[in-house]
Structures are given as C-alpha cells and as structure tokens.
Write a structure and sequence with these properties.
Elements: H1 3-8, H2 12-23, H3 29-38, H4 52-66, E1 72-77, E2 80-84, H5 88-108, H6 110-119, E3 126-129, H7 139-145, E4 152-156, H8 164-173, E5 179-189, H9 194-204, E6 210-218, H10 222-235, E7 238-241, E8 251-254, H11 264-270, H12 274-289, H13 302-311
Helix pairs in contact: 2-3, 3-4
Amino acid sequence: MSNNGERKRLTFHSLAEQTLEKVRRPLTPFEIWEESKDLRLSQGFQTTGKTPWDSISAQLYVDVRDNQNSSFYQHSKRPSRFYLKKYERTASIAESAEDTADSTKEGLLHPLLVRFIDANENFRAKALTIHHQATKSTRSQKGWNEWLHPDIVAVRFPYTEYGKEVTELQKEASASSLTLFSFEMKVDLNLGNVRQAYFQAVSNSSWANEGYLVAINIDRDPYFMEEMRRLNNAFGIGIIQLNAQEIDQSEILFSARTREKIDWSTIDRLNANPDFKNFLGYVSEDMRLSKTKSPYDAVLKGQKFEDYIREKSILELS
C-alpha cells in the first residue's frame, strides 16, 4: 500500500507519537501539530476540524488518564505538555539545561527593560530583578511555586505624578495611586511558545496592578498577532517588544488591563523570595519618605548603555 495510504490511516494519537519521537522533547498539543507539519508527518493527514491541536489534546489527555499502558505521560499542566514515557527520566534533565540557557539570555535583556520603563510615560517606574533561585523550596513546594515569580517587578510612585499636598492627602485618605507592575521576559515570542509564555505571565502577575510579557523578537505574522490580541482581550496581559538599537522606540503592542485591587495573598507568598521581600521594603520606605532613595536596578544611560549592548552582544539576540 502507498505511503499516502498509510498517512491517511494516521490517528492523532499515532501522529503525536511519531512527532514526539522525532523532536525528543515535551510539547503542547499545538506544538505537536506544528512540528508534525514541519516534519511532513501530517502531510496527507485527513481532518475536518479547524483546530486539530484541540483533537490531539483531547485524545492524549484521555489516553493518559484511562490507559495504564499509555505510551504518553503529561509532562506539565499549565501549559499542558505531553511526552513519551520512555524518555521521562531524561526529559527533566534536558529541560533544566535548556531553561538555564534561556534564563541566561533573558537576563541579559533586563537592563533594556529597566531603561525603557524608567523613561516611558506609560510607566515612569523603578524596577528590581527577581532571582527565582533565591527562593528556598522543598521538593513538595516546587510544583506549588512554579510560575509564581515574575522576572522583574516595578513600582510607579504617586509622588512622581502629583504635588506634595495631593500625595499627603492620599495618605490620609488611604487612597494612594501607587502602581505595581510585573514583567515576564522572553527572547523570542512566536506561535510555538506564546501560549506557554502568556500563561506564565498570567500566573506570576496576579498580584500586580498590571502584568506584561516582554520579548526582543516578536513574530509579526497576522495570524500570530491576532492570537496575541485574543489572549490580551481574554486575560489582560500586555505585550512589549524591546528595540535594542533604539530602546526608546520599544513598542507596547498591547496594553495591560489595569487591576484596581492588589492580590495580597499572592504577595505574601512572593515574600518568601529575598529579592521580592527587599522590593516591598524599598517601596514602603520610599512611600514613607515621598522620595526615591532605595537601590532598585540601575538605569543604564548614554555611553554605559551603549557599552552594555556591545559587550553583551545584545544585537545578536535580535
């Protein structure tokens, strides 16, 4: 029988298995479908649905849940990623190495964001990097704290917007217009990672007034932009694209939805991180003094900023 005939008999189950065998890393159902197309495994595959990745998701979920001998396991829940059981032991090791490399690259972009939000009129904010590894967690806490910490937190003080009299009156009325921001940093943002990155930002920004997802490379494909618009409308996380060559020309592609209420219970959990605890202390002290004196992340300007871009090869990331 022809090869095309074999492909027509493919099920979503077998398509996912073949794709994961080729790619050798955990994937979301959407990523499985996209990779299967790139690998030409889905060529000639017969489906009438417009969202085949949803069918993949449903079939794999049921197979993992109901079939003790399933060849798959669910690697993560938010986002939902699946992988082959036979590679389960090596998956976490490989993923940890990949995450470390990504975190290093993302960390190099922090000074760019700090510079942008310090000067941009939509923020005028002071920022502080949050080092995730600084939080001490037991094995039982690791899953609980996953996606809890943002990469950068920031604050816009009311005394930078209003005069002394108005600021003092706000204090008396317990109506401070202090604004807290949360930022999740990525190098690239595209169809392959947008859902995972977006829901990571949703998860670690629930405590703040505004949450943002930031990247230096963002796919401008119309379909992808529409997907980001849909996510923004549904969940309210803003999107910022950094411009390494002209940092002041960085774009807020989608504005964040402002939350009036602060999530104090999540802030209390975040307080276990020494960096975040310091951030809270800095904000409290500066609010008390009505003056910014605390050691937030340094804002690189002029030649120092240009030297940083060159020395860290930032333009090679874009």
